[in-house]
Amino acid sequence: MIIPPYLKSGDKVGIVSTAKRTKSEEIVDGIQLLKSWNLVPVIGKHTFNEYHFFAGTDQERTEDLQNMLDDNAIKAIIFTKGGYGTMKIIDALDFTNFKKNPKWIVGYSDITVLHNHIHNFNIETLHAVMLQGISKCTPESKTSLKRALFGETLTYEIGKNESNKNTESVVEGILVGGNLSILYALIGSNSDIDTSNKILFFEDIDEYLYHLDRMLIALKRSGKLSNLKAILVGGMIDIKDSTLEYGKTANEIIVEETNSFDYPIYFGFPSGHQEDNRALILGREIKISSNDNTIKIEFKN
């Protein structure tokens, strides 16, 4: 995998909105954080536009991201927020210059579209808190974002979860994934990815339990769950029951739909739609090990 150049003091960072509309006051704390790291935020022309649900028309959102992809002075692109909209513009983007001059793509949720699309270019991306979430995220989230962007060692230790499965052995593999709903929506498209022999991470928010089951079955039927090294489950936030009770929890559904496979499943990693949203380098090889009390996740340099 290709590692984009790590950031250094004075680097310019592009700020764009490719999904839900954003107000300038929502990202004040995020902009100040970047400046405190001696980075120079460059805000896209249409970042605060409004077109119904979206941050501008498809053309405007495409133009902003395309400009940042093509500008070699921009060393990373950090998105304001997710929601929905990146999938509407992905096929209009030209990645020719980006592939020659890669830079860090930073975001999560709807930005999973870009994470997966770019993974197919063998370029790493950064699943991490976006600017709108900086004001509420934990100090650990901010620190992990900085460490990842500036090329410092990234290691996590989390407590064991009672839902974990087959976690006795050490696992190594390339980390891929993102938001489960987006992974499901990308199946069969040119932004779909090969998960074979990789570690799959996913998280989600505000879905019904039966939706979760349906998405996992779709991933399984399309071969995405068949040859994994492991699954790393992030925050499954506000997963709702329907009027007619589904009868299983989110974790139980995940275990049930993977019960024909013997790879490890690690639950409860602090990443996703929550205040504790730690950075993950997608496309990077990681090592997962465990002892009696903790799970250790190490990103290889």
UniProtKB/TrEMBL annotation:
**Is the keyword Magnesium assigned to this protein?**
no
Q: Does the keyword Protease apply?
A: yes
List residues of the LD-carboxypeptidase C-terminal domain. 172-288
Q: Which GO terms describe its molecular function?
A: carboxypeptidase activity; serine-type peptidase activity
Cite the InterPro entries for this sequence.
Carboxypeptidase_A_C_sf, Class_I_gatase-like, LdcA_N, Peptidase_S66_N, Peptidase_S66C, S66_fam
A Gene Ontology annotation in the biological process aspect, one of them, is: proteolysis
Q: Which CDD domains has this protein been placed in?
A: Peptidase_S66
Family matches, as SUPFAM superfamilies = Class I glutamine amidotransferase-like, LD-carboxypeptidase A C-terminal domain-like
List each copy of the LD-carboxypeptidase N-terminal domain by range: 13-128
Q: Which UniProt keywords apply?
A: Carboxypeptidase, Hydrolase, Protease, Serine protease
Give the highest taxon in the source lineage: Bacteria
Active-site positions, per UniProt? S109 (nucleophile), E203 (charge relay system), H273 (charge relay system)
Q: Which family does it belong to?
A: Belongs to the peptidase S66 family.
- What's the protein name? LD-carboxypeptidase
